[in-house]
Amino acid sequence: MRLALRWLASIAIFCLILYHVSPRTAIDLDDIPISPVDKSAAPDPAPDAKPLLEEERPRGSPRPSDIGAFWKKWSQAMYDARPRVFAISIKGQATTLPPNTDGPRKPYRDLVRNPEADLELMRKAHAKFVEELENIRADEGIFKGRGVVMVGGGEYFGPAIISIHMLRRTGSTLPVEVFVPNDEEYEVDVCEGYLPKLNAKCVVLAHVLSQSDAELGISHYQLKAPSLLFSSFEEVLLLDSDSIPVVDPDEAVFSQEPYLSDGLIVWPDYWAATESPQFWTIAGFPDFPSGLPATSSETGQLVVNKKTHLAPLLLATYYNVFGKEHYYPLLSQGALGQGDKETFMAAAVVLNTTYYRVKTSVASLGRHDGFKQKATAMVQHLPYDDQAGGPDKKVTVRPAFLHSNTPKMNAGHLVDEGDLLGVDGSTRLRLLGSKAEQEKHFGFDVESSIWDLLIQTGCELADIIKEWKHRDRLCERLEEHHDQLFGEHRSGMGQVWEQKRANLRTQ
Ligand SMILES: *[C@@H]1O[C@H](CO)[C@@H](O)[C@H](O)[C@H]1NC(C)=O
């Protein structure tokens, strides 16, 4: 009894805190009115009116008549099937450890503290949404072609631009859509002046989200699933702004097995999966599913065909929309990196659709700063080789993506935040291993290639990307690093661009 009281009291205090921190999350979910969203921030392209002409459409809007209507319908379905439970509460935190088995996944300890009744309410809501997904056929045909989707804006523009340039260096001509959260992050000079030269453009996510009447409160780190969903492409490679392709994705992934048969490709993380077994109960499974990989997943890159896999993508979006309070804790139980990472594969398993999970372990590249070894990047492998090969068959499984996340390839941050220097403050560090190692892994010195682009884009955009504008001598400092590390002398790009910018200013 005392325990129960203390439990209640802590819930009450928790609610109070939440109410003050974030009023939106503290509302009793049963009473949420279906309120119109605040549309003052984003111009409303009137969903029911005739489609706007190109020149009438707000900057960065996709075709409002179809994708907007699509979201209006599915966001309502998500809202109607919202989990009517305050939040999932986790006891402690799952640990991030490498899996201790080569075999299939074993259930992790259940850390969920909610009563049975909560889980039953969530199961009902989940079943309602899955039932709704049976009506999906009518939505086919609004997406077209193959392309790449990234989430950009603010500090993510810099690395995204490096990744897009590297994509072009693989020979790929796939169009790119860079999703930015809202109008404030739509930088005209970047979105209209620079990206179109790379066959890339910005799309403002808020313009699609505002087509919905349901208040779902989607925030920044939940944007990947909606971006995938709202991109105009039918076949999509989702890339984090810091994930760099080292093969032509069109030729090496989209045009090959296992993509052609399976339609959804997911890559592994280092760590063992830690979802609560209760997740599977909520999803309507009688038992823990067999045959899942022991590791969790990593969404620095993801490939999906929306023609065959729109239902799992919508279900993954449902898990993300109700991620923060419900499905993220269920799927990771507080483990490091909790977020959208497990939602895509979970949705495919739940709906029993095909998917391919790359088996080759993610490799790690790092640097030694004179004091300790630090991880820099994750290397993810080519699904085609992965399926054909594997350790026993002696096929070399080639790398496909370099997820360079610590640090990200943001020219401004690189020169200002000390990651390029050893602890002595003067030794210049290679971030991705020696030249010989990189040539062995990738067939070329990938870091040198990235540095060409860091200088080129850092110098050209030093006064253009908002986040770089007030950094001192960005271009020159990039060149200094390059010259000292790679030992070649650059041909004074800094001066060339300084002159160009001076000319622009005087015009
Ligand atoms: C899942 O799909 C496979 C292959 O299509 C089928 O054999 C199996 O019965 C399905 N499982 C369930 C639970 O529906």
Automatic annotation (TrEMBL):
Instruction: Report the locations given in the UniProt record.
Output: Golgi apparatus membrane
> Which Pfam families does this UniProt record tie to the protein?
Mannosyl_trans3
Q: What is this protein called?
A: Mannosyltransferase putative-domain-containing protein
The annotated region (Disordered) lies at: 38-65
**Major site of localization recorded for this protein:** Golgi
Q: Name one GO biological process term.
A: mannan biosynthetic process
Give the signal sequence positions: 1-23
Quote one Gene Ontology molecular function term.
alpha-1,2-mannosyltransferase activity
Give the GO cellular component terms, alphabetically: Golgi membrane
